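User: Here's a protein and a ligand (heme D). What would the complex look like?
Assistant: Let me lay out the input and then the predicted complex.
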Amino acid sequence: MTRNIVFTSLLCVLAGPLQAAEPEVLFATHYAVCHGDDRLGGAGPALIPEALSRLRGEKLQAVIAEGRAATQMPAFGDQLSAEDIAVLAAYLHQPLPEIPLWDKAKIESTRVLNADYTAPDAPQHGADPMNLFVVVETGDHHISILDGDRMEVMARLETPLAVHGGPKFSPDGRFVFVMSRDGWVQKVDLWSMQEVGRIRAGVNSRNIAMSQDGKWLAVANYLPMTLTILATGDLSVAEVKDIAGKDGTASRVSAVYQAPPRESFVLALKDVPEIWEVFYGENPPFHGFVHDYRDEGPLGYDEPFPVRRITLKEILDDFFFSQDYEYVMGASRDGEGGQVVDLVIGHTIAELELPGMPHLGSGITWERGGQTVMATPHLRDGVISVIDMKTWETVKTIGTEGPGFFLRSHEETPYLWADVFFGPNRDVMHVIDKESLEIVKTLRPAPGRTAAHVEFDRYGRYALVSLWEQDGAVIVYDAATLQEVKRLPMVKPSGKYNVHNKITFSAGTSH
Ligand code: DHE
């Protein structure tokens, strides 16, 4: 596969200069070989507006002219004029002429199973299978599998391009599934540390969620506007659901979440004020009030994976769930607050006062003074809000050195760790006491370089911090003394995920 990438990128470079500034011709001549005739991706990622939203303005032109460091993407600045580059960039930001058909048959046709994989009967390594970490290295599109006792990398596997969101583990912790923004889902066996296979479940996807019984993996898609449900065993397609509000308005799926005690997936919808709950269990909890919804929607009880719709006052994005999955907190789109929805009764029960664009998806909970509290960073303001999960009131707003992205803790540690992802202080990591809610230490692992995203080992003894740079590292800290123990070189490590913490739904990590 690597040879193919090198070969196709050589073709990209060799494709000759051209005078005509017709965008379709420019694309076909220079880009189609790597990114697909249809712009849906190949050796390179899809080049469609949904995938390029973070390269607005002149950023995309700069990438075309200068290429991307440490990737196969060459620079076209000496082959194309500035005008041609501007025309090409504008073209790539145009929606596709028509939405690609990405139905069950099409998705199945993309499935590739690894011919070299044979399922072993037992782990093929000597490490504790429950204390492994999967580290996503976005810098060169790999995952590293880390022994969480010895803190050593045991294996490194190539992933699809641009993995985003948390990988999801099978309930026994043996298999891990990762997803790329181009909709590829990859399955890896942590016993043999081999890829089992991959399938393209969407054209542009958001995240994935695992069912409680481990049988199903749901994939939230922006393009097309669907939810794909895969059978985890062989990655075959169980269902592709079109998503549309009660009035028929089609909607992107912002994200899909697992709600294990409810045997359902919960969907945040981007374009309509509804929450969807998709059931996979034997006895979906359909009671009187759900019948009303069934009659209104295109989907019903008799469908496989029946759907319940909850109507909202406004569109909610970015969800956080109580540990028992009765309550879901959702952020308003204007970034100035949110609502709490009780999933049992299907209604909003509280408003959240949370200015400064809370990042609820990064929230964590713990017990404090007999109450469960939840903490969330904010993407716009340098604060962390701590919320009482009974009254839904803010207990404290902790000032930080800048807006943060991720929070982490563990049942066995008195601290929570908070990064400062944005602004001049993106190199610091705050350590905050969970009782006093005061910052007890501010670490600066590598001055001037981004420190972000923490995950604990299964015992809460070590906190692993990403040095989020191309020549980055995972830095292992003693969680009690806050001293650095080890630095493992990594290529832009984004998230890292501990098997035990994930499959036991530790309150200190994301689910
Ligand atoms: Fe993420 C998780 C949405 C930008 C890195 N991000 C998630 C999840 C959602 C989400 C819904 C939860 C998925 C899950 O784990 O199941 N992210 C969004 C956005 O809407 C946003 C703001 C814009 C976008 O481009 O989609 C966004 N995210 C980013 C980034 O720019 C980050 C920093 C770099 C990147 O890789 O794209 C980024 N997001 C992450 C990571 C997680 C994540 C590392 C997993 C966190 C975890 O610990 O579970």
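Summary: The helical segments are 2-14, 23-30, 32-35, 59-66, 82-92, 104-109, 288-296, 499-503.
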